[in-house]
Amino acid sequence: MSVTDAMAVPNDDAPVLEVPKRSRRKGKYNAKEVGLAFAFLVPSLAVFVTFFYVPFARLVSWGTYESQRGGASYKQVGIDQYTDVLGGNEFRQGLWHSLQFVLYTVPAGLILGTLLAVAAHRRLKGIKVFQAIFSSTLASSVAVSSVIFFFLFNPAVGFFQVSWQSDPSWAMFAAALPAIWQNLGLAFVIVLAGLQAVPDEVMEAARLDGYGAWRRLTRITLPLISPVLMFLFVILVIYGFQAFAQIDIITKGGPGGATETLVFKIFKQTQDYGKGAVLSVGLFCVTLVVTFFQFAILDRRVHYGDE
Amino acid sequence: MATSDVSKGAAELGMGQSPARRNLGLIGQYGSLGLLSLLVLGPIALTVIQALSPPFTYVNEGKPLHPVAVSWQDRTWFTGGPISLIVRTLIVVALLAWLQKVASGGGWKDGALRAPSRLVAIIGGTVVLALAMNPLFQSFFKADGNTLMIYVGAVLAVAATQVWGFLSPTRSPITSVVMALFTGFGLISFCVLTMGPTVWTLAWTRYDLGPAMGRSFVMAILITVLQVATAIMAAYAFVFLRFPFKRILFALFMATLLLPIEVTLVGNVATIRQLEWTDTMQALVLPFGAAALGTFLIRQGFRGLPSEIQDATRLDGYGHWAFLTKFAVPLTRPVIAAFTVISALAAWNQYLWPRSVITQNSFNTLQIQLRLASASEVANANQAIAAALVAAVPVVLLLIAFQRQIIRGLTAGAVK
Q1: Can you give the CATH number for the domain in which A168 is found?
Q2: N or C end: fewer C-beta atoms under 10 angstroms in chain B?
Q3: CA pair distance B285, B216, nearest whole angstrom
Q4: B329-346 pLDDT, tens per residue?
Q5: Which residues on chain B are in Cβ contact (under 8 Å) with A58?
Q6: Single pTM value for the model
Q7: A192:B4 CB<8 A
Q8: How far apart are CA A229 and CA A240, in angstroms?
Q9: Are residues B78 and B101 in the same domain?
Q10: B324 CB within 8 Å of a chain A CB
Q11: Does A208 touch chain B (CB under 8 A)?
Q12: In terms of pLDDT, which residue wins out, B140 or B207?
């Protein structure tokens, strides 16, 4: 059918509407339809080209220019700036700091989110109140949570007068705390949605087989919700690598650059386009690698049910 | 919250166990849930205490510690001008009406609130509360040791107005009384915290939260409208229209997910500077005018529509526009609503981009204004803390109003 359609002589008068949908696949495009499609796509494309692809392309080329005299002029240095910056201490340091932030926030988010969700996934009078409480941190923004924790752990006026924010070995933890707290709501909501999707019969069967609560959790519930946990893991890692407000508000990169993550270093380089561009491309590569790595490793270990 | 139909609950509650053991289990479950709530709400509670604590300047100048930058002396329910009086009265009326609605188990429309007992609870409760606040604020000012007594008295007075409304055949009288007491305590405490201290209004004026909030509102609304509109159009094209290079274009759309603002920041800031758009609304809005995530989600929604609908409407002579507005969009409303709400939330919470393209404090969005507040003098830290709490209120309201949509949007990728 489709073959004959494709070979048919084009006939503009043909009543397109009466042709069944599937068989039109190889047919000639309808000019009006194509026009409408592009009219519908142009707004999005305009944004994507202007603010996503063109800036990125410019960044890749700017990386080959080195700024002279604090950005007054630029000199073409080719690939050298890439090798210098990406192989240099600063990039490695920024990457390590970003990784530290991820290491503080991601396991905490997974463990606490699961804890909250398992605790609140039961039939109990008033459980909805607890569910609302557990998801309540969704209402706070990064700025709100950062300001709250900035003052909670402030050496001068804090509720807990500790000097974490100015201690190089604790500063990153101080910046990660609001993120850990703020992620509670998101992690809870996501894991709970996963738990609610587990059929009750499965748990019932396990219970009849004499599985205790702990074995039900570790042998059945967690494997069954592992796709959800992986989803949560991925977004928490991405959030972690993109974290900025916590550092901007709480430690301002300090003390002595101890909390300058990759994103923070990029933010500081919006004057030096050359170096900022190289760092941006570096961040792009890192997120790319992380994303692929996550999907490659986790895809195999995760139980996807009968999908 | 999404409903949890958990049939294992009955088993876990311990059918077949002795009542004593079951009660012990219940106490354990509520106890652990309470502890976890403390973990989540603890920081907020401590922050409220900090916001209400006397600022350092007060302590240094030897001023009394109990007022929080406020003279409680002239404070009554009726001070503060007509607008704030009306607003705070409406808040109390709404809270009481909502509680009565929940207690009646009915909806807003089935007339449950028109029963005399509920009218007494709503109107009487508001009047008693308004009158009780005056002696309470006075005793805070005098610090004469009677505060606790007056507090308890106010709670009991408000509770008394609620009991009749809470009574119902399905509920024991004792439960109704306990509910009324909780209502009284909650309302009185809420009013003391939110309407007593002027630290909230001080923070509001000191850090220009009004204009900043206005700018954040405009920004969030513009971004949301643009994202939803462009996503619906693009998704429609990808699902219902035939055009060349469809796969390549779709890949081009999805690839933007790999270019978050953090990566393109330097390039975008350069663009904005070249256009001389720093400190303008279009600089805040246009880079987020389209979202691949929205296109993806709405495309999934459109694909879920039975193809018979499209065929039937085509035969009835509907054009693409009519099909889009009369069928495709209304039928995928849950998906679109979910995306709308998470898009608005994300836009409202923007931080890195506004921080990068705003150079003048007078153009700060709310989130950036909070950073400014936290960076200002430590002596009035309680006002900066109060500013953070005030800034969270609109999102709290959004979360309460659109809980279902937000949760559906956030979990869209997690559960199919």
Answers
A1: 1.10.3720.10
A2: C
A3: 11
A4: 999 999 999 999 989 999
A5: 267, 270
A6: 0.84
A7: yes
A8: 16
A9: yes
A10: no
A11: no
A12: B207
